[in-house]
Amino acid sequence: MRAALYDRYGPAGDVLRVQEIERPEPGPGEVRVKVEVSGINPTDWKSRAGATPRPIDGFQIPHHDGAGVIDKVGQGVDPGRNGERVWLWMAAAGRRWGTAAQWSVVPQRQAVRLPDGISPELGASLGVPAITAHRCLFADGPLDGKTVLVAGGAGAVGHFAIELAKQAGAKVITTVSGPQKAELAARAGADYVVNYRDADAAVQIRSLAPAIDRVIELALGANLELDLAVASPHAHIVTYAAEPADPVLPVRACMTANVTLRFVLLYGVPPAALDQAARDITTALTDGRLTELPVTRFGLDDIAAAQEAVEAGALGKVLIELA
User: Mean pLDDT over residues 102-131, rounded?
Assistant: First the structure.
């Protein structure tokens, strides 16, 4: 099969290559998926660049997320899954068979049925961002009747956080940096959109919701002052991204606000929580509650350019088309 891979860390153009390798076979409890679309996330380029290095088992095919069709099952897997359309999550976590290849092999729980009518592009966009959003939203309890502030509502995690929170019965306020991103966040279903660059952003948020119960944060250091200014007593501030520099924590201000800080990294989330997220995301898909982001498409031969686009902060999702 044709696959993109790397066997050392470094810039995309230096270490990524596309070549023919042996097609993988599924082991016990695994399925093999013919990949149609591979989705790229920041964690993918960071691993390849060596910013978050992980052991390389000879070579690494990148990308955790994708969508395709199961074409072979391993021992112990229901043969009826052959031919099933699926979305994939965390395919490259501790394994060499990421989705940037014509075929990938994953544990069967990480190949989730893709509901009828859902495009492979949307399926390949879920994985890391949708599961991250789910964990951030629900790790601290139900959301029905709560008010959630989503920082960066035009990003992939923010997009799915808005949609999952609305499905769960929450009121959603989101912050963005400009009109184009505001339009994307509103389209996702946010009740209110605020430009965080406005000098009176905190005043605007408090006028819309006197009490914020949960904050989904991507830039804790830059935004913590704003978060504390709008959070209700006993609110949860949940962050899923690491900034270049660690924030200075204002301990007294956090104590005064009686907030709880939670840090989320999918690689350490309990398996039961990941499985619940996958189930809930599939339910939301079936109900038509999750939508596509703007998409930039590349072919497999252009994988270096695709990863560089994500590294540069491309709006929406960057996808590799393999079918």
Answer: 98
Q: Which CATH number fits domain 129-267: 3.90.180.10, 3.30.360.20, 3.40.50.300, 2.130.10.10?
A: 3.90.180.10
Residue 137 vs residues 99, 159, 187, 205, 217: alpha-carbon distances, Å: 27, 12, 19, 19, 11
pLDDT of residue 7: 97
Beta carbons within 10 angstroms of residue 246's beta carbon:
9
* Residue showing tokens 């006028």: 207
Confidence of residue 53 (pLDDT cuts 50, 70, 90): confident
The domain limits of the chain are: 2-126+292-321, 129-267
pLDDT in tens, 265-279: 999 999 999 999 999
d(CA 267, CA 265): 6
For domain 2-126+292-321, give the CATH number. 3.90.180.10
